[in-house]
Structures are given as structure tokens and as C-alpha cells.
Amino acid sequence: IERNISYELHAGANLIGYQYRYGTSISESLPDDVEGSITGVITEGGAATQIASGNWVGSLTAFNGGKGYWMILDEDITLTFENGCDGQECTSLSREVSQRLTAYPIGYEFSQSTEQAFYFIGHISGIKIGDWVLAYNDDIVVGAREWIGAYTDIPAMGDDGNIFTKGYMETGLKPQFKILRDGELIELEDNLPQWSNNTLHMVDNLRMLPESFNLSAAYPNPFNPTTTLSFALPIDSEVSLSIYNLQGREVASLVNGNMEAGYHSVVWNAD
Prior knowledge:
Layout: E1 7-9, E2 12-17, E3 24-25, H1 26-29, H2 32-35, E4 38-43, E5 46-52, E6 55-57, E7 62-63, E8 68-73, E9 77-79, H3 91-102, E10 116-121, E11 132-137, E12 140-146, E13 152-157, E14 176-181, E15 184-187, E16 200-203, E17 214-215, E18 226-233, E19 237-244, E20 250-259, E21 262-269
Parallel strand pairs: 10-16
Antiparallel strand pairs: 1-9, 2-8, 3-7, 4-5, 4-8, 5-6, 10-13, 11-12, 11-14, 14-15, 17-18, 18-21, 19-20
């Protein structure tokens, strides 16, 4: 393939190839004048996105020859890759990228789908480097990624009609994330964006589900006229949260209904 080929790309998702033989880092490959227009790159099992101009995060760190890439753009551009590599000195980078995108924990493997989305997680309370984050649809593993720090990208594969992806994610569903640590699964709160194909989601923070029911003290207290009541649910539950006066009479009902497991808060205006 001609090395100086130019791609006419439109806003949205564009599927293209990479014409150089070996791996070249994303930032080095993209011309400065168009790099800012590219919001993300998706390939088989991996993705990258920019959190600042030229600052790419995610498991995908380089372009490799023979691979396809969805370039996610916010405007039309003409793209010609720069600084590609055809020399043997680049083989180690290609090998590292391949290993990073195909490694899964034993017993939690999943099939690569032609439909996929990625969730970039900024922070997970209590997680450790080397833990695995697993993505589930009900009880089916649809993705996995070893935690490497802020903005690790967690893949979630979709049901593309193939027998190997039956029961995977579908548009409008939400994946559930769990931490795998020393053979133990730890559930995380469920506040993820809905899944759709070829999308990149940014999630600032996730927390582990609480181990028990808990109602925290009102904060601030004393207050005038509002205060916040926070509580934790280890499982989906029917919840009633009410305010009583010193004589035992109910003066306000703040919550009355079913709520999902996780951490919740309600602001009470006692004006």
C-alpha cells in the first residue's frame, strides 16, 4: 500500500486501515493539525481517547499494520499518517500492543464481537493496580481489562447475531462491572451509561457496593434550611426515608419506593 495515502474522513465513525508495517504510537502517527478533531480510536478489543490535546489514554497506544481502526471524529478531516515505521526496531511495540489487547483472566474469557463499546473509568474506590475489571450482561462476561490506573478502558462486547456473542450487550442495556481480585468477585455500583455500538463513555468514578445497610448522619447539622441525608443499600430494596418530630409524628416523607443497590443521598428542605 502507498505509505502516503490520504483518508477523507467525515464527522462520526470511520473505519480505516493502517498502512505501515509495525506499531507507531497514536500521538506520533497523527498530524498535529487534525489530532484535536479525533475524539477516539477503536480497534479489536481496545480503544483510546483524548482527555486533553495530545494526551491519549486507554489500552490502545499504537497503530499496527494489518489492523482496522474506527476513527471517531467531531468534524470532517483529511488524514495522512505521519512517522510510520517499517523497521524491525518497532516490532516490540507491536507485540506489546497485541498482548495488552488479547489478555484475559483464566475462567473469564469472552468472544470478540464486531460490535463493542468502551468505558473509560477515571477512578474506582478501593481498586488496586493489577486487579481485573469485568463487564457483565446479567451473568455473562462481555469484557475484561486489567486495571492500570486512571482512565483504564473496559470493553463491553455486543450481540452481533453470531452464536458466540449470544446474550451479549444490546442497545439501551447497561453493563455491570465487577472487580476480580485473588479469585474473588467484588460488585461495583451500577450507574453506567447505556451501551451502544462503537461508543466511548467517560465515567469519572465508581464505588464498590456497600456490604450493609447504612444511614449516615445529616450533613450539615445544624442547618438552615436544607441538609443532605445519605444512605447505602447492599442490594436492590424497598426504601422508606421519613422525618419525624420529637413527638413521633411524621413531618416529611423523602423516599418511598424501590431503589437500586449503591450509595444514595436526598436533600431535605425544612423551610
